[in-house]
């Protein structure tokens, strides 16, 4: 059900010809009435044009439309790219009868090429006419690039619904690790509530995901509220539901990451603080040596020690413990020679548990293995 | 000629049985008389046992012997590992007639297993008896693990000679990116001169090399001086020669990195300061997306923009320029669509030039591509 699980939203998709494959590449998400919105964005020094535009449109905390194209990232396109993004927003606004500032634009795909606006204009009328409360999955498909399947999730917060979708599948780093994620709710949540939920509940989830350590120019997380379900907003319950949806999406992105054959879940406990816990988890999940060992089901727990020690977090080696699945592999900083974790490396999801033994803080980090297919996909991506 | 190019040093190697392959795995480097020494070490929170031992032996700035085994890293081995390293040092000291504190020990290989001391004791007498002024290349071979060839370099500083060797080939990150590097000179350089040269001339070179972004537990750079050539020390000339040797070794490590088919040289100019320049270079050379694009000769310069923007360095997009080889690919932050850098991606060394356009500082960074073989080597390393 994706983004249309929440009442008050319609979605549609089209194949506009942005992708050479002819697959769906243009998505539209529209709130039936005036909606509220909040977002978070890449911190890359070269943000894509639609990121710059959408940040400016979000200042007032209101939005009605999300327009997404896949195929071109509209990044590294200079002033012309900014004009293109604005043209897309004004085109959608005209077709839907709202202000340009109500339209949030996102792009994903190859960095450099401009979005072919002629194809956008040709596809827009049919796209707008196709809006439907059943369109969430089609929207979720249109935003994909190298993804092999759509990522959707839903949750409830009392009477209010929360639904979302996201795309992967590469150029994903732990600083807001997502290319694009869209989550909607029918709760009548004012902008400041949405902003708090994005900052406190959503961003930590996406900062705990790593695929290849490369932060995109286009990362965008949007949270929109239609208010269609009415009632009072329980901010904690709504935050729980949004976090649950975001966490499910992040885990799906890790599982469908470029070339991934296994998901890596790193659970870090016993840290002095959550940021240190996450840093250790990201260092382990982001290590090419851990990732290749998981891919090959190669029991090499010394690489967990090495990666954890590279996190720029003060550790006490004598208290450091780790296990893979249910098999202890490191105890007091010593790599155990009598245990063999090979069995725990064979499944589709590998759990690495780390106990730093110095505090009470925890973090969960999602990652994936590094396979021949990651190299193949990215050695041949643009051509 | 490696480490025995400088007068006053002998070296030897043996196959002690630390490697299952039976290849040379024990190296000995000895200064004929009392020598001076300085070093730099990994900042990993779990330093290997020989790193801890060698740091303590270096406090006085004097050393006569470097003993290296390959096959086991003696990391993640706890108190027993520290005892093993000390046993190796005292064994070598007894065989050579010096104090244990005069022996610097280094290990490289799999993290976790202990060094088989019985094999060490069995191999030591013949190793010590084989010391020779022609042994530099044999020593350079014995320290290798997944390297496919030895890395050696020499330079002259007036009447004084400088020679060195290093090993790669993986677990190499820009925080002192080297598993092991040994450089010798016959200049009568006191410890403080050697320390300054290590800190100011050697460390920046190794901090500008990245293979897989994984900082080893065993990284060690040692600089030893025999004084055998006598004369006065010209610190600047000696520093130049040491830096030249270190730079050559770093470039060789990049070229022979695990699975590498191409070296990537990133030349960053126009930065406000050298640290920012190096950060941008490392972000580009360390990007898995840049590395796979180079491997596939896939012209995708948007990834250079993305990676440079991920360096946590403030940039002015309108001044940012880049070229691959002699072909401009980014101008004023815009990825050029009319140029095709494919030709410049085909050679064994790919030069990425970046001009930040905001200052006068520069940095050169060495890296390598990411190939199927990197995945293969590291998915099968320990088994």
SSE map:
The structure is a homodimer of 383-residue chains.
Chain A: E1 9-14, E2 26-41, H1 49-57, E3 62-72, H2 78-96, E4 103-110, H3 117-129, H4 136-142, E5 151-157, E6 160-167, E7 180-185, H5 191-206, E8 220-225, H6 235-255, E9 263-271, H7 274-285, H8 288-295, H9 302-308, E10 321-324, E11 327-331, E12 334-335, E13 349-355, E14 361-368, H10 372-379
Parallel strand pairs in A: 3-4, 7-8, 9-13
Antiparallel strand pairs in A: 1-2, 2-3, 2-8, 5-6, 6-7, 9-14, 10-11, 10-13, 11-12
Helix pairs in contact in A: 1-2, 2-3, 5-6, 7-9
The percentage helix of chain A is 25-40%
Provide the number of structural domains of chain A.
Answer: 2
CATH topology of the largest domain in chain A: L-amino peptidase D-ALA esterase/amidase
State the separation between the terminal residues of chain A, measured CA to CA: 34 Å
Which key phrases capture this entry?
homodimer; 383 residues; alpha+beta; L-amino peptidase D-ALA esterase/amidase; Ubiquitin-like (UB roll); 2 domains; eight-stranded mixed sheet; six-stranded mixed sheet; 14 strands
Describe this structure in words.
The structure is a homodimer of 383-residue chains. With 383 residues, chain A is an alpha+beta fold. Chain A folds into two domains: 254 residues, 4-Layer Sandwich (L-amino peptidase D-ALA esterase/amidase); 117 residues, ArgJ beta chain, C-terminal domain (Ubiquitin-like (UB roll), Roll). Helix content of chain A is 31%, strand content 27%. Chain A contains ten helices and 14 strands. In chain A, the strands form two sheets. In chain A, strands 1, 2, 3, 4, 5, 6, 7 and 8 form an eight-stranded mixed beta sheet that branches. Chain A is globular, with a radius of gyration of 21 Å. At the A-B interface, helix 8, helix 9, strand 12 and helix 10 of A face helix 8, helix 9, strand 13 and helix 10 of B.
């Amino acid at each position: 059900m994706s983004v249309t699980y929440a009442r008050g939203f319609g979605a549609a998709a089209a194949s506009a010809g942005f992708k050479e494959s002819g697959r769906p590449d243009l998505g539209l998400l529209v709130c039936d009435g005036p909606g509220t919105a909040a977002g978070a964005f890449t911190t890359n020094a070269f943000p894509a044009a639609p990121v710059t535009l959408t940040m400016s449109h979000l200042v007032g905390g209101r939005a009605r439309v999300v327009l997404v194209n896949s195929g071109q990232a509209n990044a590294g396109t200079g002033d012309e790219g900014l004009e293109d993004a604005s043209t897309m927003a004004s085109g959608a606004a005209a077709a839907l009868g709202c202000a340009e500032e109500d339209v949030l634009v996102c792009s994903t795909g190859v960095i450099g090429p401009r979005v072919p606006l002629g194809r956008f204009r040709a596809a827009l009328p049919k796209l707008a006419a196709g809006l439907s409360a059943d369109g969430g999955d089609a929207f979720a498909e249109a935003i994909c690039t190298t993804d092999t399947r759509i990522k959707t999730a839903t949750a409830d917060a009392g009477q209010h619904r929360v639904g979302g979708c996201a795309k992967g599948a590469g150029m994903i780093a732990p600083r807001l690790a997502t290319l694009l994620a869209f989550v909607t709710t029918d709760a009548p949540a004012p902008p400041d509530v949405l902003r708090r939920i994005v900052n406190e509940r959503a961003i930590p989830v996406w900062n705990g995901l790593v695929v290849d350590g490369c932060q995109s120019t286009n990362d965008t997380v949007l949270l929109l509220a239609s208010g269609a379900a009415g009632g009072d907003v329980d901010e904690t319950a709504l935050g729980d539901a949004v976090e649950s949806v975001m966490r499910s999406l992040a885990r799906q992105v890790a599982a469908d990451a470029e070339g991934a054959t296994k998901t890596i879940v790193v659970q870090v406990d016993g840290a002095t603080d959550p940021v240190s816990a996450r840093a250790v988890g990201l260092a382990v999940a982001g290590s090419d040596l851990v990732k290749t060992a998981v891919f090959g089901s190669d029991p090499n727990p010394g690489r967990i020690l090495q990666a954890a020690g590279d996190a720029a977090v003060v550790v006490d080696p004598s208290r450091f413990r780790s296990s893979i699945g249910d098999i202890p592999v490191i105890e007091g900083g010593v790599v155990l020679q009598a245990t063999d974790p090979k069995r725990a490396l064979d499944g589709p999801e590998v759990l690495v548990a780390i106990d730093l033994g110095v505090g009470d803080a925890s973090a969960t980090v999602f990652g994936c293995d590094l396979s021949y297919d990651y190299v193949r996909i990215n050695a041949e991506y643009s051509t």
